[in-house]
# Entry
Amino acid sequence: MKLELHKVKVRDIQWGDVTSVKDGVLYVNKEEAISLIAEESRFAKVDLELARPGESARIIPVKDVVEPRVKMDRKGYYPGFNNTAMARCGEGRTFVLDGAAVVTCGPIVAFQEGFVDMSGPGAVYTPFSATQNIVLVVEPIEDLEQHQYEQILREAGLKLGVYLADKCKDTPADEVTTYEKGTVPEEVEKYPDLPKVIYVCMNITQGLLHDTYVYGSDIRPALPTLLHPNEVLDGAMVSGNCVSACDKNTTWHHVHNPIVAALYARHGKDLNFLGVIPTQESTVLMGKIRASQMNLSIAQELGADGVIVSEEGYGNPDTDLCMNARNFEKAGIKSVVVSDEAAGTDGASQSLADATPEMTGFVSCGNVNEMLEVPPMEKLIGWPESIAHLSGGAAESLRPDGSMYVEMQSIIASTAEIGFNKVGCEWI
Amino acid sequence: MKRVVHYINQFYAGIGGEDKADQTPLCEAGFKGPGLGLNKELGADVEVVGTVICGDGYYGEHTDEARAACLKMVADFQPDIFIAGPAFNAGRYGFACGDIAATVAAELKIPTLTGMYIENPGVELYSKKTYIVPCADSARGMPKNLKSMAALALKLLSGEALGPAREAGYIHRGIRKNFIHELNGAERAVQMLLKKLKGEEFRTEYEMPKFNKIPPAAPVTDLKHATIALVSSGGIVPMGNPDHIRVSSAESYGKYDISSLTDMKGTYESVHGGYDRTYANADPDVVVPLDIMCELEKEGVFGKIYPYFYTTTGTGTAVAFAEKFGKEIGADLRNAGVDAAILTST
# Structure
C-alpha cells in the first residue's frame, strides 16, 4: 500500500476574496466558508475566527481539531462523513495544508471540552498553539439535543477542513511524504529476522458523546479490527468523543499518530510494523474482556513479538489498559503502554485507577491534575466562562482579570496518550 | 562563602559506640569525622562551619529535648544549608538525622538533606520533609555517598529548580510532577519496546502501585429491619450545586437530607463531567434511585432509608481523595447505625 502526502506548508492565515494558498499564506473567503457550514439548518449562528501562533488569544471551549486535507484522486476525504463515498484510505495521493488546522468551538459545554492558548505558559502543552487555526464558532438552534449538536459540529469541522484543502489542491506541494509498506506476509518474507510489532490504539467508546469512528462507523458496538498504518495516517479514524480535553485524540491527532509514525520510521530497520488495531474501551466488564482478548487474538494470528498499547482517557479505561498488558505479557508478547496519570493536584495520589504487575513498560504522558496558571489573553474566542464546567476547571478558575488557575486536563491534548507531547511525570 | 552545618552521632564524632549513645547534644566549630570528606567534596566556595553531635540513644529517648538543643546549636552557626549523616542502615541514627533535618528545614527555612540506605526506617518517616540521598547499607559506601550528598547540597545551594529525584540524586517523596522530556512519548515507547524485545535493561516511567484490596462487608441478614443509605459518585447535587462539588477531579463530597423527599426530580441535578447529563437531569433517580427505594421501603422490603445521602463526582478523582471520602463516609454511616449502603456509579 502506497500513500503520498502532498504537503503545502502554511505559515500564515488571512481572510481573502478567494480561498487559496499562496507563498505559505492560506487565504480564506469567510463568507463562502460560513455559508457552507450554515447549510446545516440546526445551527442558529455560524462564525469563523482566526488564531495564529504567538497571538494573545484563547479559544474555549474547543471540541475537535481537523487538519485540512482532501484526496487528489477522488472527492472528499473522510469516508462515511458528509456524504463522502466509502473508499479505502491510505492509498493514492492526499493533499495537505500542513500547518493549518480547523478548530471547532461552541457552547457545547457539559461534555468535556478544553481550551487552547496561542501564547503563554498554556501554549507549551498543546500542539494547536503552533498551528494556523481557523476557528469554527457555532451555536445550535434552541433545544437541540446535545448528541445531535456534537454530531453536526463534528461533521462541520470535517467539512470545513475538506473545503479549505479542496480549494487549494492545485497548488504544487512543498514536500511529498511517501508511506509504503506491503502486506504482512510480504513484509515478513522481506524481514524474517526483525521483531514483529503491532500497535493497539485504544479509543473511547462509551456511547452518548463518547465515541470514535473508523470509516464512518461508530466502533463502540464493533469488535477490534486491523488497519494498515497508512489507513490511520489517511483519515480512516475520526474522533467523536468528549473525553477530558487533555487526553482526547482529536481527529488531527489520528492522522498524525506519532506511534504509527515512530514505528513506521523503524520498519525494515529495527522492527517489522505489522499494523494498527483500533480497539474499544467498553463501559462493561464483559466488553473489556472481549476487546482485550480479541486484541491478543489478532496479534497472535499475525505472529507479533511486541506491542505498544496507547490509552485514551483515564479512570475505567485504565482497566482495559491493564487487561491488554496482562494478556500480551502472559502470551509472551512484550508490551509497552502509553498513558497519562491522574495523580491528584498535589501529585501524591496513585496515578491509575487500576494496576497489574505485568504492566512493566509504562510511558507517562503527564499528570492531568497538575495545576497551571495561565494569564489573561487579549482576544477571547468562544465562551471563557465555560471553564467552570470543563474537566480540570472549577467555578473559581476564571478570575476577574481573565487569568485562570486550572488543571492541565482542561488544555486540549496536553497529555495526549498517543505520546504526541514531550511532557511526562517523574518522581520528586 | 556558603555555610554548612553538619550533624553526626557520637560514634562518627569519635566519642564512643553503644556505651556512649546517651551523649547529650554538643557542638564544635568546623568539621569532624565524615565532615572532613564532606567539606572536601563541597569544594572551595562552601564550608562546613560547625558540627552538631548527639548520641543516638539520647535523641531517640529524649527527642523533644535533643531536637530543641540541636536546633539552637544549628541556628547559632547561621548556616545556608544543613546536612545530617549519612546514617546508612542505622535505624536510630536515621531517625535522628531525619528528625533534625526536617526540623531545621521547617524552623530555619533553609534547605536540608541527609543520607540513608533505602530500607532505613528514617526514609519512610522523613523523606517528605527533607531530601534523603540514597546511600549504601554500611559505612563502606562513605566516600561515594559523601560525594552524592555534596552534589545535591551544591544543587540546592544554587537555587536552581531540582529535576526529577532520580537525576537530582535523592529518594523521591512519592510525588508525581510533570517534566518536559527530550523525546515525545511515542519515541520513548518505541525505544523502550526495542530494549524490552532485545532483553536489554529499560526503565519504566511508572512502577505499578500496590492497591489496597478491600474485602466486601458481610451480607445483610435481616433486610426487613435494615437501614440502608444511598451513596453515589454520579455527581447528583442539589440544584445550583451549593457546595461547589467539582465536575471532575473532585476534592470534596456532599451530604444532603433527603428525608422529606420521595423523588430526586425537581430538587437535584447532575454536575458530573464524565457523561452526557441529559437523562440524569431529566430524572436524577436514574443515578440515585430514591424513588424506587421509597416504594420498596413502603412495601416493607427493608427497614428504612437513611435520611441523608452522600454524593461526589467520580471522574478524574484522585485515588487518595476517593479513599478519604470512603473512609469518612463509611465511619459516618457506621456511627449512625446504618446497616448497608447502595453505591451507584456512572
Chain B touches chain A through 58 residues (CB under 8 Å). The two ends of chain B are 61 Å apart (CA to CA). Chain B has two domains: 2-168, 223-344.
